[in-house]
Amino acid sequence: MSDQKRRRGPATSASASTSKKPRAASSAASYAQELRKQLKSDDHILNTIRQLSSSSAAAAQPPLSISDLNLSTSFREVTDLDSSSVVNSIERLVLSVARSILSGNGFSFDVPSRSSSNQLYVPELDRIVLLDKSSSRPFANLSTVRKATITARVLSLIHAVLLRQIHVTKRDLFYTDVKLFGDQNQSDAVLDDVSCMLGCTRSSLNVVASEKGVVVGRLVFLDDGDRIDCTKMGIGGKAIPPNIDRVSGLESDALFVLLVEKDAAFMRLAEDRFYNRFPCIIVTAKGQPDVATRLFLRRLKIELKLPVLALVDSDPYGLKILSVYMCGSKNMSYDSANLTCPDIKWLGVRPSDLDKYRVPEQCRLPMTEQDIKAGKDLLEEDFVKRNKGWVEELEMMVKTRQKAEIQALSSFGFQYLTEVYLPLKLQQKDWL
Description:
18 helices, six-stranded mixed β-sheet, disordered N terminus, single chain
C-alpha cells in the first residue's frame, strides 16, 4: 500500500501542477473576451481618431530649425543640394587639395567629428544635433593614411555618379574597390563623412540603400511619374523608393499613420485590411529604420499633416527604434533635421499592457542582462527624461525584467491585434 501511495503521489502532484496552466490560460482567454465586449461601435472609435487628426492638423507648424533658436553653440547641419551644387563642392575641395600638394604641404581632409561626445540633444527641437567640431585626416600619417585614401576614392566615385545623373546603392559603391574598402562598413562610414564635409544630405550624393521599408493603406502617390495606389498592393505592400526625390503628389483620406516595427505585424494589418476599417497609412522598415523610410514618414507627417502612432515590441530595442524615428540616430545626427518626426505617439506594445491585457506568462520573455542595461541606458537619455510616461513604462520594464513581442497578442487569436487590441487602444486614446 505504501508503495502504491508513493507511486501515485507524483502522479497526483503532476496532475495538480498541469491543471493550473489550463486554468490560467482559460482565465486569460475569458478576459480577452471581456475586453472585446468593451469595444464600442466603429463610428465612435472613428470620431475619437478624427479628434486626434484634427488637433494634429491644427497644431501643425513649420518645424523649428537651429537658426530659429539663436543658440550660442555652433552646430553642423546639412541640406538638400542639387547635383550641380554637390559637383561644384567636390571640385572646389579637390582643387584645394591639389594646391596643398603643389605647395609641398601634402594633403589632409577636414572631417566633422561624428563621435557621441560631439552630439547634443536639443530639447527645443526634440532631436539630436551635431556640434561643429572637426578633426584632421592627413594622408601623410600612418594612422589615417588608409582613411584619407578611402575618402578621396569615395569623393571620386560620387563625382562620377553625379555627372552621369544616376543613382547607385551603397553596395554598388563598395564593390567598385573591394580591396581598398575591405568591408562595406568602411565605405558606408566615409560616405557619411563626405556628406557632412560637403554640407549636403546623403540622398544628394545619389547613393541610396537597397529597398527595405514598405507602405500600405489609404495613400496614392506618383513614383517617378507612375501612379501608385497603396490600397491595391496586397499584403506585401509597396516598397518605399530608396531615392525619395522621385516621390511626388501625395494624396490621402487617412486619419493617421500607423508606424509598425516588424514585418509580421505589418502583414497581419495588411491582410485584415485594417486601413479600410480605420482609415490609415501603415508603414514599416522591418526593424531598424533606413534613411528612405525615415524620409518618407517625415513627408507623410508634414505634407499630409497626419498624426503618427507607433506599434513596437515591448522591449528596449523596440523603444530604441522608435527613438530613431523621433529624435534621430547618433550615426546621422548631422541630418536629423530632415530625418526626424518628434511628435510620434507610442501606442503599444507597452510594458503596462502585459498585465492590462493579461498576456500569458508563457508569452512573456525574461530580459537578459544586456536587455536590462539597454533599458537603464535609455532611462538616462534626455529625450526619455522629458516624457514622464516613457520613464514610468521603462522603469516598469526594468523592474519586472519582462519583455514581449507584438506577436504575443496572437495567443488570444491571430486577429486579436486588429480586432481588439488596436481598436480598444484607439477608443481609449491610450497612447503616450
